[in-house]
Each structure stands twice: as structure tokens, then as C-alpha cells.
């Protein structure tokens, strides 16, 4: 009878040692999900030293108390920084940015999972760029119903808005620390969307370069409830109006007739609300987006 296979113990973390990359993970009450992400980070094949910084945005689930045990379990150079002064992911990213010891700062979310090779791909792309965006796998972690609610990003390229500059999604990027600090980090007044677009545009308008790291893949989890997903659509659309108002002078331009197209589609497909959860959710989310656009127009674009 053969012996049971054994696993070599993970190397002990080395707090305070020099690192060339800091991975910042904004956190808020993620004790039940973040370990899958930590295990994925521990499995990265980056040829160099990196640290993981959990930016705790006011968690009440005892996150900070668990960090020493997680560092030992996963063999990570892992620490937690207090990011509770202002609620929001932008403040958490900024707190992690300020605390980072690496020259390159990568960012991912606590409830997603990075694939093997994620960090290596970001680092390689950053050799010729100041800001790097990765790609998303929305199929593996999400069922078919939720994938009907919201379209996934177009693979193989960075996303754009208003026919303007590309942007790196906030849940999957790397940026040179000095560049991020030079542009003021993430704008904390953007809440529930638009923050990553604004950050990416400010970086590029300041003369820095952006690139795609196609091999830097994150398995991105959609929200599981329709109410929360619809709220996201509303908030994203409302903040897109703010982006348009803020960057119109630089060349951002809203496509003509988009409001009318959405309204026409909703009227023609109103029967979807009586069908299965996939089609019903798609209709509800599109209606929420239309509502958010109107809210944004009234708040940011009145008189435009």
C-alpha cells in the first residue's frame, strides 16, 4: 500500500522584506469568502517577492484578527491596514496604495479569484506601461441565469466609455505606485461605480501609458440577487453621466439616441417580466440602467 501523498509546507512569510509588487485587496466583511482569493494569490508563479495588503474598510467580522493565521496557513507576506476612515472601495484602495511597499501595486477584490499566472502577466505588461488592466472570466463563477442579467466584458481588449479612452477595471489592475500617487489615487467621491474609469482617464490624461495584460485573468463573481444587480446597473449609469460631464471637454461624447433605444427595447420586450428568471432579470437590469441614466442626466447634465 502506497504512502499518502504529502504536500511541502508553504514558505514562511517574511514581513518587512523588500518586495517589488504589492497586491492590495479592499475588504469589508469578507471573512467567509476571502480565503479562496488568498489561496489563489499564494499559488501565483511571479518570479519575485510580493506582499498582500488587506485594506479593511471597517469590517465587523473580525477580519484583522485572522490575518496572522492566514499568513501562516498560506505562506503569504500578508498584513492588514486600517481603511475605515471613509466607507467605500476607493478609500480602501488608497489606504492600501499608501501602505504598499512595492513599486508596482496590483489590485483585486476579496470575493473574486485570480487564476494562476495572474500576477506574472500583470508584471510583464507593466514593463512597457504605467497602468495595466487584466481580463475577466465571468463564465466559471456565475450560472447561466446571472450571465443573462448582465453582459460580460469584450475579451481581448480594454473597455472604453463614450468612444473615449480605455480603462482598467478596478478589480483587476496594476499601476506603478508613484504614478497612482502623482494623480491623487482614486477619487473617493465616486461611489458605486465610475471610480475605475475616472482613475484610468486621469492617468492617461497626465501622459502615462495604459496596456492590456490578457493573461491576467480574474474569475469575477456577479451578485447573486436581482435587486442588488439592478441597483448596480442604476448606480453605474448614474455615474456614467457624471463621467460624461467631467470629461466632455477632453473628448468624451455620449452616443446619440441611447436613451430612446433603451426605452424602445424595454417597451418591446416588456413580456420578459412574465418569463424565466434570466430574461426577467435582463429586463429589470436594463430598466434600472435607464432610470440611472435619467437620474444622472438630471443631476450632472441638465442644460447640456
Describe this protein's structure.
The protein is of the alpha/beta class and 304 residues long. It contains ten helices and ten strands. It has helices at 34-42, 63-74, 89-99, 118-125, 144-149, 177-182, 195-205, 226-247, 258-268, 277-300; strands at 21-27, 50-56, 78-82, 104-108, 113-114, 131-137, 159-160, 166-167, 172-176, 210-219. The strands form two sheets. An eight-stranded mixed β-sheet has the order 3-2-1-4-9-6-10-5. Helix 9 packs antiparallel against helix 10 (277-300). The longest helix has 24 residues, at 277-300. It is globular and about 60 Å long. The model is unreliable at 1-15 (pLDDT under 50).
Topology readout:
Elements: E1 21-27, H1 34-42, E2 50-56, H2 63-74, E3 78-82, H3 89-99, E4 104-108, E5 113-114, H4 118-125, E6 131-137, H5 144-149, E7 159-160, E8 166-167, E9 172-176, H6 177-182, H7 195-205, E10 210-219, H8 226-247, H9 258-268, H10 277-300
Quick gist of this model?
The chain has 304 residues and is an alpha/beta fold.
Q: What brief labels describe this structure?
A:
304 residues, 10 helices, two-stranded antiparallel sheet, 17% strand, 39% helix, alpha/beta, eight-stranded mixed sheet
Gap from first CA to last CA: 78 Å
Strand content: 15-25%
Order of helices and strands: EHEHEHEEHEHEEEHHEHHH
The main sheet comes to: 8 strands, mixed
Average pLDDT over all residues: 92
State Rg. Answer: 20 Å
Helix content: 25-40%
Global structural class: alpha/beta
Number of helices: 10
Strand count: 10
Uncertain residue ranges: 1-15
In one word, what is the shape? Answer: globular
Query: Going across the major beta sheet, what is the strand order?
Result: 3-2-1-4-9-6-10-5
Amino acid at each position: 500500500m502506497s504512502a499518502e501523498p504529502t504536500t511541502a509546507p508553504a514558505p514562511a512569510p517574511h514581513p518587512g522584506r523588500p518586495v517589488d509588487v504589492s497586491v492590495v485587496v479592499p475588504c469589508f466583511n469578507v471573512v467567509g469568502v476571502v480565503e479562496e482569493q488568498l489561496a489563489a494569490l499564494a499559488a501565483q508563479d511571479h518570479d519575485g517577492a510580493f506582499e498582500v495588503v488587506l485594506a479593511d474598510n471597517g469590517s465587523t467580522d473580525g477580519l484583522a484578527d485572522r490575518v496572522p493565521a492566514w499568513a501562516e496557513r498560506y505562506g503569504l507576506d500578508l498584513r492588514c491596514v486600517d481603511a475605515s476612515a471613509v466607507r467605500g472601495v476607493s478609500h480602501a484602495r488608497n489606504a492600501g496604495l499608501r501602505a504598499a511597499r512595492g513599486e508596482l501595486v496590483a489590485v483585486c477584490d476579496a470575493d473574486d479569484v485570480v487564476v494562476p499566472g495572474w500576477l506574472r502577466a500583470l508584471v510583464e505588461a507593466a514593463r512597457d506601461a504605467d497602468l495595466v488592466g487584466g481580463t475577466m472570466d465571468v463564465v466559471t463563477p456565475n450560472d447561466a441565469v446571472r450571465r443573462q442579467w448582465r453582459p460580460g466584458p469584450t475579451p481581448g481588449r480594454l473597455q472604453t466609455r463614450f468612444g473615449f479612452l480605455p480603462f482598467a477595471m478596478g478589480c483587476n489592475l496594476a499601476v506603478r505606485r508613484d504614478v497612482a500617487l502623482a494623480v491623487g489615487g482614486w477619487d473617493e467621491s465616486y461611489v458605486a461605480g465610475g471610480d475605475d474609469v475616472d482613475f484610468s482617464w486621469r492617468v492617461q490624461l497626465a501622459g502615462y501609458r495604459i496596456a492590456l495584460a490578457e493573461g491576467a485573468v480574474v474569475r469575477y463573481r456577479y451578485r447573486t440577487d436581482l435587486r442588488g444587480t439592478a441597483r448596480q446597473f442604476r448606480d453605474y449609469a448614474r455615474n456614467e453621466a457624471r463621467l460624461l460631464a467631467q470629461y466632455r471637454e477632453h473628448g468624451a461624447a455620449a452616443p446619440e439616441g441611447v436613451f430612446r433605444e433603451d426605452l424602445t427595447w424595454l417597451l418591446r420586450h416588456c413580456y420578459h417580466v412574465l418569463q424565466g428568471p434570466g430574461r426577467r432579470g435582463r429586463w429589470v437590469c436594463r430598466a434600472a440602467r435607464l432610470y440611472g441614466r435619467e437620474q444622472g442626466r438630471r443631476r450632472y447634465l441638465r442644460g447640456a
